[in-house]
Amino acid sequence: MKFVFDSQEKVSLVQGVAAGTVGRRQFLRTAAMLGITAATASAVLTACDNGTKGAADKNKAYKAGSVALQVELGAEDTKVLYGAGYVGPKARELKKFGDGKKEFSVLTRTFAGQDMKTNKFSVWLEEKTGVKVNYQVVPIGEEGTPKVNNILAGGDLPDAMMLGPAWMGGFSRSQIYIYGQQGLFAPVGKLIDEFAPELLEVFKNVPKLRDDFTAPDGEMYAFPAVNQCYHCRSSEVRMWVNSTWLKKAGLKAPATLDEFTSMLRVFKEKNPSGLASSVPMSGSKAGEGSSFIGYIMQSFGYLPASNVSRDGDKLIYAPTQDFYRDGLRYMAGLAKEGLLDKRSFTQSGDELKRQVMNPAGALVGLVQGGSQGSFADVEASNPNARYRDYEVIAPVKNGPHGAVCPWDYSTGGVVGLILTKNCKDPETMIRWADAQMNLEVCRSMPNGPLGVGFEWAKKGQLGINGKQATFSRLAAGQDEKNTGWYEWGPYNYQNDVRLSESIDPNSRSVEPALYEAGKLYEPFAVAEEKYFTTPFFDESQAAQVGEWETNMGSYLSQSNAKFILGEMDINDDKVWDSHKKKFQQLGQDQYLQLLKDASSK
What is the number of helices (H) and of strands (E) in the chain? Predict the structure, then answer.
């Protein structure tokens, strides 16, 4: 059962019910205090009761490779071009395999202006595969959560779900494992070996991917999608500077922490915007690129998004390390000088965007974000769009320490499709998911069908990576809201797929610029042996981890703001020692031990 509420406290409470660590009476009493409605509370308890039935038998787990493939890959289209050393899906013939008589129900996402029934890609996919689908839709994020909750709690499950990755409001690997153990989600490992030749090709190219999606009980409870986004590997700590401000101030991009500080001072003193309310650097309390902390900390030590890193056999919680204190001390100095916007700790992402998109001129010199779209409106067809004023800058070196960029070394696997216990024809659904890994299909998904949203590249056209391009986007597919899907289902974006997009100057893609941003950060990437991957958790572990992460995360957000804004003295050793003890009281050591134990399984 998956219930995502507006606060982490509510999430932890529900996980506690699922794990059996929170009783029914305690749940109802605490739910009332947290503002969970009586109807939703009842749905939670019902789902917990139903979910405990039909748990998977660990002794009967399917062993990968135990059955033979029953379908073959289609003939390859030899006219389609690929760059040297290309690794990824090929353009292959896709023969219709559905009979068009059975109608499958699939719970998925939607956005404003989209109708999944008339969507060009939806219609085209049905024609290609012969599989008729009735799409039940929910919005992206928390707005769609109540509907998902009701469906899961009521037991009237669709044949399949494709709700996207966790950031979109979809399921995590641990949640899928728990629901699989409860019998709500069906195992798919055997079906993949029999009916998914495209995905089996991916497993050959990305050997760790299957392991990533194999739960501790030996089963796979989700058909994965693949998104090897090169620029995303450093997106969480990327900083953008207003190049117009930089030029007016007579400066160049900083290379050292001292130069970074000097740039902020010049922005404050000279005020290149000419507007009274401008600030050298700003952020927001939530959302992608919400804070400058991640970028600045690169100059002091390794701060991964999870706050947890490896050091040999040990796991380290970064916010209690000396380097983190040094970084906070530096930022407290910036705040004291008025070089960063104090509203960064309280304002929303929309408020930050209004600062950047102010009609009279941008009010912010530096902003952190995965792309310009994190804080500005991206109008690709407008050569004078505000987002174009912001250019990425590299991490800045701090004396002999240099700089360390957090780097995502994962396989790029995300949840693609889940089969529920109610799926009436699992074989066809798996073939339908696998068909979407075909190159033509996965390029049609975001852009619209061949000839509408994209075309195959011509000989001599170069891709983002400088090699022969494979495809080019067409403006028509990007202008129509009801042409394609977002990344909420199965797709195959291995690295060479994304990077084989033509860099034709007429293209409206932001990918080439983001690729260059990734290249700028890669020389600073942390060593892979320090990268920690969050493991699978069972029900009891998930409940406990949720509580620890909620409590420590809440305290960390508060203490970061207080240290930087001077409400707590970062230079007082007694204050810092008390700060570290607070994390221990909140379960830091037990948290790290559980992560280590779960990773060893």
Answer: 22, 14
Amino acid 559: pLDDT: 95
Q: Burial, 182: exposed, middle or buried (Cβ in 10 Å; 0-12, 13-18, 19+)? A: buried
- Region for residue 267 given its phi and psi (left: phi exceeds 0; alpha: psi -120 to 50; beta: otherwise): alpha
Whether 553 shows a pLDDT value over 50: the answer reads: yes
Do 135 and 117 contact (CB within 8 A), yes or no? yes
CA 390 from chain centre, in angstroms, equals 23
Q: Which helix (H) or strand (E) holds 225?
A: strand 223-227
Q: Which residues contact 532 (CB under 8 A, 6 or more apart)?
A: 304, 306, 308, 309, 310, 315, 595, 599
Instruction: Count CB atoms within 10 A of the CB of residue 577.
Output: 10
Residue 210: exposure state from Cβ atoms within 10 A (0-12, 13-18, ≥19): buried
What pLDDT shows up at residue 53? Answer: 40
Q: Are strands 413-419 and 160-161 parallel, antiparallel or unpaired?
A: antiparallel
Burial zone of 162 (CB within 10 Å; 0-12 exposed, 13-18 middle, 19+ buried): buried
169: left (phi over 0), alpha (psi -120 to 50) or beta: left
DSSP letter (8 states) at residue 387 = G
> How far is residue 160's CA from residue 131's CA, in Å, rounded to a whole number?
13
Joined together, the tokens standing for residue 509 give: 């893609």
Could you report the per-residue pLDDT of 451-505, keeping only the tens digit for each? 988 999 999 999 999 999 999 988 655 556 788 999 999 999 999 999 999 986 6
Tokens of 136: 């039940």
Paired tokens of 26 = 């305690």
Question: In the 8-state DSSP scheme, what is residue 492?
Answer: E
Q: Which residues contact 594 (CB under 8 A, 6 or more apart)?
A: 541, 544, 545
Question: In 3-state terms, what secondary structure has residue 409?
Answer: coil
Cα(365)–Cα(349) distance, integer angstroms: 16
